[in-house]
Write a sequence for this structure.
């Protein structure tokens, strides 16, 4: 399963990329709005692409198909790594079909049901992003929706990639991996939580304390 960082913050991206585990980045208008002090958002997206050297999702803001296509074409010129996020609405499906023909990769976002995922795949979306955390917030089991999407895509050999999105905690990442999501995108805090374990810290301290007692030096 590939791991994406859900952020618009270049410092977080550089931090996690340095670990050697980052496959891509997802952004949205809300995340990019938090970085307005960095100036032009296009320059920021270009910098993110240069650091990640992998798929970077950037979202359109138009609500009509023509506007979405126009914005997607503009965004795709920023870098070869740009994937265009389009909302799963009728106008978005129209736009996705046009962009598929143009060879522009689409991430169909704000997807909450397997039926929406089927429509996204049929429209030619390269990625579909079910929002698990937001489903959980309203009392639905988001993980079940992703599992159904996985089963449907496997039934028909659909190659649209599933991005497990709206990840809130490390257990979500575990669930994503167990059900076979292609990608899990998460905030930096979840990456940091994944790497932490109290027994790792205890064990490391014990090893270093014992080594110090020997008086030896590795260098």
């Amino acid at each position: 399963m590939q791991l994406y960082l859900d952020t618009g913050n270049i410092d977080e991206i550089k931090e996690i990329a340095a670990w050697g585990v980052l496959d891509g980045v997802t952004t949205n208008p809300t995340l990019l709005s938090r970085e307005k002090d960095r100036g032009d958002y296009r320059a920021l997206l270009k910098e993110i692409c240069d650091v990640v050297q992998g798929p970077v999702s950037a979202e359109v803001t138009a609500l009509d198909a023509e506007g979405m296509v126009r914005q997607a074409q503009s965004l795709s010129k920023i870098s070869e790594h740009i994937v265009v996020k389009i909302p799963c609405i009728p106008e978005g499906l129209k736009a996705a079909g046009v962009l598929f023909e143009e060879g522009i990769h689409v991430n169909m976002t704000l997807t909450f049901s397997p039926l929406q995922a089927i429509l996204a795949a049929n429209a030619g979306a390269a990625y579909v992003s079910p929002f698990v955390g937001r489903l959980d917030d309203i009392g639905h089991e988001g993980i079940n929706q992703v599992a159904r999407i996985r089963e449907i895509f496997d039934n028909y050999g659909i190659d649209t990639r599933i991005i497990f999105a709206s990840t809130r905690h490390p257990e979500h990442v575990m669930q994503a991996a167990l059900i076979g999501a292609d990608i899990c995108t998460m905030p930096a805090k979840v990456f940091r939580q994944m790497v932490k374990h109290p027994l790792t810290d205890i064990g490391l301290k014990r090893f270093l304390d014992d080594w110090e007692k020997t008086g030896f030096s590795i260098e």
